[in-house]
From TrEMBL:
Single GO biological process annotation from the record: lipid catabolic process
Entry keyword Signal: no
Domain of life: Bacteria
Glycoprotein among keywords: no
Active site positions: S42, D183
Family annotation (Pfam families): Patatin
Motif GXSXG, residue numbers: 40-44
Gene3D superfamilies the UniProt entry points to: Cytosolic phospholipase A2 catalytic domain (3.40.1090.10)
Motif window: DGA/G: 183-185
Regions that span the bilayer: none
Name of this protein: NTE family protein
GO molecular function term, any single one: hydrolase activity
């Protein structure tokens, strides 16, 4: 295959991010594919940084090893992103419901976040800032304004990465330079526009953890609440993609009048790798499941999805778009 450089947009989704680990693990085996920029939110931000840090230390094989190291550490007995006492099933759902009324400022007085030690042990942020192999765009949401903030590879440090994955019902807001931040999923999940305007590569592969369409209609209180939460984390992405399609539709007949921004949007070749039926069938509580069996199962599912996508659409990279944005987002 002819070498091609692409951009990646990685969606967040808690433990479901292990699916993206599998997708990236498969993509890294294709020596003809390289990366120009990576945009990541929450779990997508973790995957983006592990991809970059591993590549910095050892190229493709280093990236594969770093991603595995991170997710296996998440699954280890001394680290848990689950709820207290490894709560499961109905008890987990009850705890998630209770967290709507209990604040981390009441329960987590010491602001303990096990991700801190894990990330400090695996990422040399100073070296990554100096020698990042590609552009990074890590999304967080400013609490006071609701604005999307993107932290790039030149400024990236531990608080920026923690901010991108800061769920306000579990962790206290992350303070950076006097401003407070929550999970980037509230404002961009993932953010696509920096890959269009700030990267040279025209191909953008978006790896989704939430299905673009959910069936059947949710009717129980639990399923309605779950869908409302999903929509909250997906609406900004849907709106951004709708804007992209509108720019294309309104400017396509006036190419001679297009400015730089319109030309960049029209020149983008978009590709979507959607979540598979396994992810679609999981409930919200599974995003807190850090068991090794669950995470490695998602990783294998992600590898299979990556293999299927490469077989179906890999030849289109560098040539043409592989999805119909109008049909999906207009």
């Amino acid at each position: 295959m002819k070498p091609v450089s692409i951009n990646l947009a990685l969606q967040g989704g808690g433990a479901h991010g292990a699916f993206t680990w599998g997708v990236l693990d498969r993509l890294l085996e294709e020596s003809w594919i390289s990366f120009d920029g990576v945009s990541g939110t929450s779990a997508g931000a973790m995957n983006a940084v592990m991809l970059a840090e591993g590549w910095r230390k050892g190229g493709r094989s280093g990236a594969k090893a770093q991603l595995a190291l991170f997710w296996l550490a998440v699954a280890s007995s001394d680290f848990s992103i689950r709820l207290p006492e490894q709560l499961e099933g109905a008890v987990t759902r009850f705890w998630l419901h209770a967290m709507r009324y209990l604040s981390p400022y009441d329960l987590n007085l010491l602001d303990i976040n096990p991700l801190e030690d894990l990330l400090l042990g695996q990422v040399n942020f100073e070296q990554l800032r100096q020698n990042c192999p590609f552009k990074l765009f890590i999304a967080a949401t400013e609490v006071a304004t609701g604005k999307l903030t993107l932290f790039n590879e030149a400024e990236l440090d531990l608080p920026h990465l923690l901010a991108s994955a800061c769920l306000p019902n579990i962790h206290k807001a992350i303070e950076i330079d006097g401003a407070f931040y929550w999970d980037g999923g509230f404002s961009g999940n993932p953010a696509v526009f920096p890959l269009i305007y700030e990267c040279a590569a025209d191909d953008v592969l978006i790896v989704l953890l939430q299905s673009l369409q959910r069936d059947p209609l949710p009717v129980s209180a639990e399923h309605i609440a779950a869908r409302v939460t999903e929509l909250g984390f997906q609406s900004t992405f849907m709106r951004e993609m709708r804007t992209i399609t509108n720019i294309r539709n309104y400017s396509s007949g006036w190419r001679w009048r297009q400015g730089w921004a319109e030309r960049k949007v029209n020149g983008m070749r978009c590709h979507l790798l959607e979540s598979d039926p396994l992810l679609a069938g999981l409930d919200g509580a599974s995003k807190y499941d850090n068991s090794k069996q669950f995470l490695t199962g998602l990783m294998e599912s992600g590898r299979e999805a990556g293999e299927h996508w490469l077989s179906a659409h890999g030849a289109q990279l560098g040539k043409r778009e592989s999805c119909d944005l109008n049909a999906l987002f207009s």
